[in-house]
Amino acid sequence: MLRSLLALCLILTAGVSFSQQVSAAEQKPNILWIIAEDMGPELGCYGTPEVKTPTLDRLAEQGMQFQNAFTVTPVCSTSRSSFMTGMYAMSIDAHNHRSHRDGTNPLPEGVRVITDWLRPAGYTTANIRNLTKDRKLAKFYKGTGKTDWNFTYPKGKQPFDLKDWDELKQHQPFYAQINFSETHRGGAWNSAHEYLDYQVDPEKVQIPPYYPDHPVTRAVWAQYLNTVMAVDKKVAFILDLLKRDQLDKNTIVVFMADHGRAMPRGKQWPYDSGLHIPLIIYWPEGNSDLPAPAQYHRGEKSDQLISSIDLSATTLALAGIEKPSRMQGQVFLGSQTEKPRSYLFGGRDRGDETVFHIRTVRDKQFRYLRNKYPERPFLQINRYKETQYPIIGLLRDLHAKGELSGPPAVLMAETRPREELYDIRNDPWEINNLADNPAYAETKQRLSAALDHWMEEIDDKGRTPEDPAIPEFWDERAIRVYSKNLKERPKDWFKSAPGLGPYKLKEKADK
Predict the structure, then answer these.
(1) Interstrand relation of 64-70 and 276-282 (parallel, antiparallel or unpaired)
(2) Is residue 509 over pLDDT 60?
(3) CA distance linking residue 429 with residue 427, whole number of Å
(4) pLDDT one-digit tens code per residue, 286-299
(5) 326 near 75, Cβ under 8 Å?
(6) What is the pTM of this model?
């Protein structure tokens, strides 16, 4: 009532139309998701040594930083299928990486991508590719426009309305996302250091103990941190655009990643290393018309358990939309806030030609994993990774020479445990498996029962194996695409691979 009276007073005093004033009074916030591809919480504000991320560190100080945010799955297509729908990929038959690309898997009734819930509420949607018209700047400052879903979007329709940043100001309120690929293996990763004034010193990085402490490992890790710093630089560019276009006072900024880091035992593996992501939410300051929501505490580092699908539900809530009845994500900010999670669930299935079936549950201290195919080796063949991950080449080389021991040697084992249990607080790298330790039997049973209940509750489609013809197709494709490279490259290719960035050990590897 008060808002309506104020609007009427403004009409009488300013001579503007009633519709204009009501529109201004009821304007909803803009929402911007900034998504880094294949990136764990390796930021200064999360305590990573040697990396310099001043923009994101400052955003965390001015916003809210979530310490325990995790994706549902550790690879792009399955993870994006989850957080863009607010549904577990396993419940909508989107759990196999690179699946259902033939147009035969529509979303279930009552399930939509987030943009299709926002449009009816008056939101324009965007997946930004173009940030600037300056051709020189645009070589670096750009988005990928990535979607990469394992379901069929309705034919003849588009999931996003816009792709150019410059169109946003005229289409408010908007929901926009922009995806950055520097932290994803490939050309942007290989060249990320070229856009930095400072490059990471490989001798100063902290590497996981399940990798051999070798110059190749340190080089790859240093280049990964360079890519993180490149993302930080691009986020600074985005925040400057928000200020330039006077959008900074009414735009909620969410920084996240689609899953964990692109490293062996990271991407495609449902440990913390593959599922843990950075999550920073910045609520605009200095706007009395946009008060911060309940549960939002500026400057706080929250240890609440957050699943990536919760971002979908929460984004809708912040836009004033009631959570859809089928959505599995939970609202964690605002008036619709739900009870905090006690557990986070996830897993992986086929990734390209590599077939695994792993399910996992985590609370604030422990992670439990269940492996359906323990007879298959950890480094079961994945030809894409064999070409892109120098550390895998290093592992295979050292193993052949009999020079691996300790946790790195575990990665080369012929089999894997059927069950795994890790005390994350005391073993953050997840290398001490407690599954067979009697002292932790009760904890294992508790988590195992929670996992069973979840799989039943969501009707986990991964319990039914794929048609064997599907992995056979991807195996044949991988052979066709990668075999020539694998056969013709030097034996010590990992010492001069592009993924080492400026830290190549040799200009030209020996054949």
Answers:
(1) antiparallel
(2) no
(3) 6
(4) 999 999 999 999 99
(5) no
(6) 0.93
